[in-house]
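User: I'm putting together a teaching handout on how multi-component assemblies are represented. Below are the sequence lines for each component of a complex, exactly as they appear in our records. Could you produce the 3D structure of the whole assembly as structure tokens, so the students can see both representations side by side? Please keep the chain order the same as the input.
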Amino acid sequence: MKKYIVLGLLAVLGYYLMSIFLLVDFGLPHFAHGVKDVYLSSSKNILKVSNAVTAIVVNFRGFDTLGEVTVLFLSATAMSGILYKKRHDIGERSILFPASSIIRSGAKMLFPSITLLGIYVFIHGHLSPGGGFQGGTIIATGFLLMLLTYQNYSVSHNRLVWVESVAGMLFVIIGLAGYFMKGSFLENVLPVGELNDLFSGGVIGIIYVLVGFKVAAELIGIIYTILHEKG
Amino acid sequence: MEKYLDILEIAIYGSAVALILIGLYGALTKKSLIKIVLGLSIMDSGIHLMMIALGYLKGGTAPIFSKGFENSADQMVDPIPQALVLTAIVIGFGVTAVALSLVIRLYRHHDTLRIDEIKNLKW
Amino acid sequence: MIFLITVLLILLLMVGAAIYAIVQKDLLFAVIASGVISLILSILFLILQAPDVALTEAAIGVALTTIIFIITIRNTVRYEDERNKKKKQKNVKKLAK
Amino acid sequence: MVGSPVLFVAIPLLAAFLIPLMGMIWKEFVRIIPGLVLAYMLVLSVSLIIYIQSHGTIVEVISGWGPPVGINLVFSPFSGALTTLMTFLGLLVWLYSHKFKRNVDYEPAKKYFILLMLMVTGSVGMVLTGDLFNMFVFIEIVSISGYGLTSFFVRRDSAEAAFKFLLMGAFASSFLLIGIMIIYTQLGTLNMAEIAQRMPQMDYHMKVFSLIFILVAIGVEAETFPLNGWAPDVYTQAPGPISAAMSGIVVKAAVYANIRIIYTMYDLQGAYEYLLIIGLITFIVAETAALKQERLKRMLAYSSIGQMGLAMIAFGIGTKEGVYAALFLMFSHAIIKSLLFFSGSYLVYNKTSKYIKHVNGMGKYLPITAFLFTLGAFAIIGLPPFMGFWSKLALLSAAADSNLVILVAVILVVSIVEAVYYLRVVNRIFFFKKRANTKPEKPTINAMIAMLSLAAIVLVIGFYPDLVTGLIERAADDLMDKGRYIGEILSKN
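Assistant: Of course. Below is the structure of the complete assembly, with chains in the same order as your input.
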């Protein structure tokens, strides 16, 4: 019975959603003058950042990114609080499958290259597609591979805490530096350089590298917490 | 050419709405807690697809100014939905992780994942 | 034309995977189907000229979300209708004796 | 310039990232730093409120781009008053839970205080921000810390309540994204002032649908009627101070967002009537549901929902007097309900089930706590010498001015219901015999200070309501003047 009510409601919702979105033309500009044009032109001319998405994420709407990093931090904190046990010993790591020697040696070879790829992606975040979130998640997948393959591979919890705390604090401190030197939070305080140069965009590149470290540490922490949970 | 775009419009919007509806259906009717969380993440995927599709520009390029590939700003797709989706994906992952840890904790207490057997509170 | 057909096929596959993920009783298969959704989604983002989002979706949606779902399933139960794993195991042991 | 609104977000985040490191040095830092940060936020907001009396609204630009392009924070009389209220309550919640029972453990204490501090920060951010998507991010911060704090006690059914909350919150955030996206595709901006300015260009259907999506999303946090299923469970299962923080801080922020969107962003005709009707339904349903509750915190939860319904009714009247009454109601409800949650959770301290019958005879064993609970109960019913009386009076006179006689009658009748269930509890406290298996627990000294300062506010404002009415009137003026809000923000370019 409940199923049919839900199906009926969903049919109504789907009808209205479709009828709204079909009014919005696909592949054509929808509005006359939005903030989009300002973002694109000042990303190229003022900030000298090639990747406009990076410019938006780190500078124009950098406050969102700070909030988003905080959301990840909070969810890592909340998770370890939710799964907290009074006993101090953590459970054995759950093994998904016993790894064969091919996987073991393959993982060992892949891990450095995955980490290198991740670092490349977040260092070049302002030049090419990618950036802090992407690079951070790629590094986290590398660690995930190691954690799944080797049962006795472990990441020092204190080191993770250090990385995420220092990266997060530096993010806020760079923001505050903008506030005290230029008068608004997260404003660029360094010279912007030339378009398509590695050292372009002022603080944008630095902030994205910090975001990368923080996201990687956060995600590894989340995986580590849930992996050491024994049902 | 116009027709081509029309078909693509209906197909992409339609599948995004379909993902949203399928996810909602799963989250509302299924009994297993993991299925509910799965439904939520499918719904999020649908919304992300919708947002990117709304920012698409026909014949536009990715919003990246690269050397040797000079293109003007009005030939680029809208970068704002992309930035928003970037944020939304990461937030969605955080929510999913918290939800799954709550699922594990509920399993620890009740030894079951069926929502109709975990009813100490009124639903 | 070929491009259009490919996109349509991909979309169809994605919606099919979504339906499969909801209908399937075996949660492990359902989760892997949702990983397939994310994979196709990241291809679609690439087609829609959003490479940044495609990278994020590929790393988060395909790898991390899927793996934490799988770990959760490993720690709890695998089948949707499975009522009580521990009790069942106890009963099996009793029968074996 | 004494400070800037951006510090409300920057300093707590800095502290939150710092706490795990400082905790390695000395464990007590984990409890002290959040208190210092909350105290700093309170001082900052008080000094900014004094500053804007003479200099007008502060519009803070972030990352150096003027309002339609970058994100901006608005410290207006309205948002400033709410910020002060919320940081004050946050400080008291911290004080109350400083020596909390289970917080002797280091790890849970760390998590508890980080989550508490960021919940307050997120609420303040929700109130201050002038950007729609930024509001979404802050809502997520608030909700995730809410999930974590709700499931804090391992031994109760808290995980279930938290899961319920999470389910509602996840739907809400998805719907909010859809609503934001509809607005963005039509108007090409995410800044609230610019959206308000361009709103007449938008197609009518789009306007209605985006408003519905956004209201459903924010209604979950604001406890409007069909979406408040999570609230009673969460308030019952969460630790006592967190219930107070939820009803005093988070819900206030969500109501602010709701009102800002309806009053400033949209220019729809039927929106005020919507508020009036939804508020009335919420009020009646919640107050009657509270009457038959058996658990104390559940009863308080329903009462809290009902009071928010009352505030919505007042906003729905739509005149300046109505807005004034609504703000006064929100203010007095935040103070009084926190007092009730604080003292109530000591009255039923040693029982996980928290039945009302456990308060029997506590008046003899915990005289001060019982007295404070009674004070709160009288104040929230609206008995004359207390603070709740003035807010209810303002609401009734606003309704009477707008010729809504039926509304006045309904509010009065439902207030009698409210009086019945509160007086029932008070009766049990003082005139029943203590049950054999309940153990009274003396409040700690910090908790006592927190409760006494709240009670002092209730009494002082009960006798001298003029202390706050000026502030609230300015806030109401600020909310009603839509053109000035848009002008102040967009002229900052």
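A couple of points students might notice: Helices of chain B lie at 2-29, 33-54, 79-110. The mean pLDDT of chain B is 85.
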